[in-house]
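Progress narrative, Year 2. Work on ABD12 from Enterospora canceri advanced from sequence curation to structure prediction during this period.
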Amino acid sequence: MKKGKKNALLQEACKMIFGTHTFRRESDFYQQFKENMYLTTEDGRKIGAFLYEGSPGPVSKIVLFLHGKGNERYMASEYLNMSELLRRYGGIRVLILDYRGFGDNCDKMSKSGFSLDILAAMAFLQNKYGTNDIIMVGHSFGCAFATEYMKHIDSHGLQKYSPMKTYLLAPFATIEEILHDYKAAMLFKDMFDEIWEFLLHEMNYDNVRNIRYCTNVKIYHGTGDLVVPFRHSRLIQQANSRVELVSLEDVGHASILSNASIWSDILLEK
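Result:
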């Protein structure tokens, strides 16, 4: 396939997965926040992030948060209710990352590029705080980015950039499985066969397959999730018996982000 056509198909496939405008903002918007910062990736991309640093003194937990497909760093911070988390857990440090194509970052998305974005964030946190004890928390599509990142560092011998523990909130099993749950996506399959096939080849995120690269992982999923049904997490757990799965009665796809019991578990766990 010619490079020009491949890039065009990739962009259309990304639109099918990620949508178009809900996760984009201008740089001027982010400049008003003191938490705003930028990182440089291995391939020279500049990516935005919010870094929240709690009260001065000993650091209790360092968190790299990977948001889902319809978010960017500001909306993610609102869903997480960062002001409340900082009030309750003053010693935490939280980096909310925007991947390429999200927020005010460059709009050229790629599967390998997302892993480089996470790698840059992990390296930054390790260097800034002088420790490898960093936890990674993904939500929804952010879970797929997390497990794909674990595969990336394993295949490139970069295990020193592994998180101490990975928490997945409302993950889907595979991109094909979740697309089959969406009737609208099935219409795209019938209408745009070429894009559909390209999507499944180039953007084929598979948490069931990639979970084997995560050595210390815990999943939380709400039984009231209508976006990504609970059965997806069951499929992931069945692929790796070491995975701990916590079901949350009646919790939905978005409300899981501000669930107090989850954050108490994550931030207070020894």
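The beta strands are 36-40, 46-53, 61-66, 92-97, 134-139, 165-169, 217-222, 244-248. The chain has one domain: 3-268.
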